[in-house]
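Handover notes (outgoing to incoming on-call)

Open items:
1. Carbamoyltransferase: sequence verified, structure written out, both below. Nothing else pending on this one.
2. Nothing else urgent.
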Amino acid sequence: MEVRVGVRVEGVVQGVGFRPFVHGLATGLGLSGLVGNDAGGVFIEVEGAPDEVGRFLDGLRTRPPRLAVVERVTTRELAADGRGGFTIVGSDASGERRALVSFDSATCDDCLREMRDPRDRRHGYAFTNCTNCGPRFTIVKDVPYDRPNTTMAGFAMCGPCAAEYEDPGDRRFHAQPVCCPSCGPSLTLRPATGDPLAGAQAMLADGAVLAVKGLGGYHLAARAADDGAVAALRARKHREDKPFAVMVPDLAAARVLCELSEAEEALLTGPRRPIVLARRRPEADLADAVAPGNRDVGVMLPYTPLHHLLVTEPLVLTSGNVSDEPIAHRDDEALSRLGGIADGFLLHDRAIHTRTDDSVVRVFGGRTLPVRRSRGYTPEPVPIAAGRPVLACGAELKNTFCLTRDGRAFVSHHIGDLENHETLRAFEEGIEHFRRLFDIAPELIAYDPHPEYLSTKYALDQDLPSAAVQHHHAHIASCLADNGVDGPVIGVAFDGTGYGTDGTLWGGEFLVADLRDFQRAGHLQPVPLPGGAAAIREPWRMAAAYGVPDDLPVAQRPGWSTVAAMARSRVNAPLTSSMGRLFDAVAAVLGVRDRVNYEGQAAIELEQHADPTERGAYPVSLDGTSEFTVAGGDLLDAVVADMKAGVPVPAIAARFHNAVAALIVTAASRIRTGTGLGTVALSGGVFQNMLLLERAVSGLTGEGFEVLTHHRVPPNDGGISLGQAAVATARG
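Carbamoyltransferase structure tokens:
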């Protein structure tokens, strides 16, 4: 007796070859029926012998296509109708939208083989793709994920492509972006010099800076070994010191530049293809201006066919923008905004619907530690508790937003620093796109209470109930949500600054927190921030705020006495408990960096100077009972004493790092004594410091703590929106 079963599959099941997979699975088992896309995911009707139907359902769950994520399979009994054959039916756009959209995936090996085969009709074609790879999120306008709802809608398939699209035995069966040189997008070079690809490579070889239209926006490219080209790119882009990323042709080339672990190699070669921050080999042939003063380099492998064709040697490949602007993704804005930077433009005529920067990751403890979560990860949701739909607006720096629905948190692609109109517009456009794509009508809006954040002002302008979530609580909640934990935990939130509940600027915080609420258990002793934001740009001001002796070299600079007096009088000097600013003060005292050109530069360079073999540490003490304080000035006094004693800077920098790690263990142990809590969550931008993170985690685990770190979203402010959403959801 045959049975017929209706099946619904939810998750990332559109744009990943799921319907062709279902077709092949069903026909291979001799089953009849149908499969199609709708606004909720994939719907199936399957008919045949009960045992074969059971094997079919098991295959759906256990053997999906490589890019698919099956979250839920539900079934219902139907009346058997005896009709033979298995068909892919038209999509149904009606109903509640629950379908998820896949991330953009790196070119698969099968497509690469075709591109490299002179006999293949896609030989050397820069837009080759199939159901297993290619553009997804950056080209989709709406769901269901069908060609008319993407930026490929204007490219009519030629006969051979249409035949592949309709052939159940072909891996391009129902691949929505399928195309070839006869019917798909094409390259152009400005200024034109014949073959666009050959012309672009010739320009790069001659030392030019080239703007390249990629998957989620424009890149600026230059030969990574060419000192003049990289220096010119840096000067024109107004990016004085911040490291550039480097794209290399293959894994072998990456190994020449970097010392790579197995986990780092897996990230480089996987379908997501982020920029991986890895230890640079001393002999690596890179221009000095690629990553000045940094022992690491951000390296990535080609992830589009165009990259595979263009990149024959290491190239700097950095976001196509002037510093502090969002990445250019429309042709007209790229030609206008990048015209003063690039010597030429390699363009194509497939539109980018959503601008998406490259993701940046590290590896810590064998797991991914995101630094910037964007292409290759967005819009994959993070599981959270179910609740009413929430829009969380994030922070100001490294902004992301987050929309939630039905236990899924959709953290946006990297928006950038919300400090200008262009980035604010990208933020607003992104929210509208996510709302439409995932059919989310927020019933609550969460925001950072800092009154001057543009994200906060946007939130308060909306006609929705609102919930303020303190910045450092959001950091810890982000780490909890990242790990699927509700708390309570001991939360250590170290960053630059965040608006505190007492009106001061926090940033060196020890909390007892769960997803609903938090209590401040301890913090760094507040010190003045002389000149406000000026002290963030000029770390020497923090040395003055901490009152270091006037006979140090840092105190000889012009303006020292004025700034020191400003700190003492508390005029234009708000109080801050920031750990990031303490790192700045130490960097300035040691002569590492007294003025920064990008956020966190002084602390990053202090870590680079630290000797990892040094195990000594400065003493640190906790004062107070119910809410303890930590005298950061004591650590700075110890730094100054060692400096005057002639201790080398690398040893001093390492001892400071070790002292901060020891402080974390001491403070957590004290909180455990009072609360019984044995889990510590580490969050905030300071925990991108690998030396500090390693020493802190090692010390905590050695004392019997369970330690939570980030692996889905960044510990920096890029993860704040997830934390805000988790808190708002928990509060109901």
